[in-house]
Sequence to fold (394 residues):
Amino acid sequence: MTSRRQMLTQGAALLGASSAGLLLPQTALAQSGKIRVGFMLPYTGTYAQLGVAIENGVRMAINEQGGKLGGREIEWFKVDDESEPSKGIENANKLVQRDKVDVIIGTVHSGVQMGIHKVARDSGVLSLIPNAGVHAATRALCAPNVFRTSFSNSQPTMALGETMVKRGHKKAVWITHKYAAGDEAFEGFRDSYTKAGGTIVKELGLPFPNVEFQALLTEIAALKPDAVACFFAGGAAAKFMKDFAAAGLKGKIALYGSGFLTEGVIEAAGPAAEGVMTTLHYADSLDTKRNHEFRLAYAKTFKMQPDVYAVQGYDTGLLLIQGANAVKGDLSQKPALYKAMEGAVIDSPRGKWTMSKAHNPVQDMYLREVVKGENKVLGVAVKALADSGAGCRL
Ligand code: BEZ
Fold:
């Protein structure tokens, strides 16, 4: 039998635990402190500039709403992932296990994303992908707690092939950094280009982040295709366009790309970028009130021009705000949080977009051309393009 003394002692212990917050229901606990938001992005290396633009975009969206999420203050955490896949799991665990973040925002590089993805699936932490397009994240390995606000790697190039053939470029060479992003971008290009009647005469590649293009450009010159199509981004994209021009190919062989080729690097590439045509879910010159206002506010705040990465970061912020508002800041209410994010319509500078069942944007793809240092939109190449989501059972 329990003695009165034992009951009193247990009662006091319970009181102590409850006043220390240990026995509060999970929801009350979750709402009492700050929301912990972790950025895992590249802040060094070829993709450093992309990481900065994404973080700027996220912060801008949240600051526009008073700097809170569902009424709660935010505590920020940051890890530089260096675009290094071998450190992906370890870096994601710094945020999840050490810093105990409620949400992880990252990353840029598809290989690193797979590390975050494993940690997100194992821990159940909310994972928002602001760039990396790796197919598995929203196809066979999709997960209820993982949402992408950017694109799948084959989405931009699905819009490229037909455009090139229509413009009379029927024989093409493909060139890329050899890793998931480039290989999956090739899938979209191959399918759309060959379906439209084009022939791919050669696939060329080099390991990421190598930028020694010379031997490959010599091979392209010898092959004499009508056009070159490619996937490069960040510092490598600027160097590729410059080396292409320096090799004497500009003006002789048309240069096309997945739109990352000309994002955030037009100034660095200089005249070599003029006339380059690409397909992407954003263009600087989109003539909408939303885009004009966004560009103005971003330039004023960060003293630099926004690009697609800044837009993706901004949209990540918008999605998180919608989710957090729906659960009044209590991110532990997972079914309600996910439902709100699944049903979100994001009013983005790129145009309105929605989430597919597999948690990837359904969005318009634009044909763009670099004119006087800007990505000018020539038209919509594909309307409301969705990734296949193959193998996802959400
Ligand atoms: C990727 O690795 O998924 C990626 C990197 C830069 C731009 C686009 C995609």
Q: What stands out?
A: The longest strand covers residues 374-385. The longest helix spans residues 308-326. The two ends are 52 Å apart (CA to CA).
